[in-house]
Amino acid sequence: xxxxxxxxxxxxxxxxxxxxxxxxxxxxxxxxxxxxxxxxxxxxxxxxxxxxxxxxxxxxxxxxxxxxxxxxxxxxxxxxxxxxxxxxxxxxxxxxxxxxxxxxxxxxxxxx
Length: 112
Description:
- GO terms for molecular function: adenyl-nucleotide exchange factor activity; protein homodimerization activity; protein-folding chaperone binding.
- Pfam families: GrpE.
- The structure is a single chain.
- The chain folds into 2 domains: 50 residues; 60 residues, Head domain of nucleotide exchange factor GrpE (Nucleotide Exchange Factor Grpe, Chain A, domain 2, Roll), CATH 2.30.22.
- 39% of the residues lie in helices and 29% in strands.
- It has 2 helices and 6 strands.
- Helix 1 packs antiparallel against helix 2.
- The protein is elongated.
């Protein structure tokens, strides 16, 4: 491969990766606003097919390194303290790289 051919191939690869990133962002935007469960499912399947997964960590322990707290839900159950009650805004990961952390509501033990 000549230097000129290599440069052309690298330019095409860079352009394709930039376009891929733009399309992923557009799909994330569309999923955030979709009113139809069928549309969300189809977008999710399409993203999954290219290695992008939706992050919905409901029921797991809150970890500020991986989740963004959007609110709290009081609980009287000590076992639920610090557990994610629900996902407010989906997060997304492109293979192992987080594109957007999920925004979650976390159970917090009610103060007595």
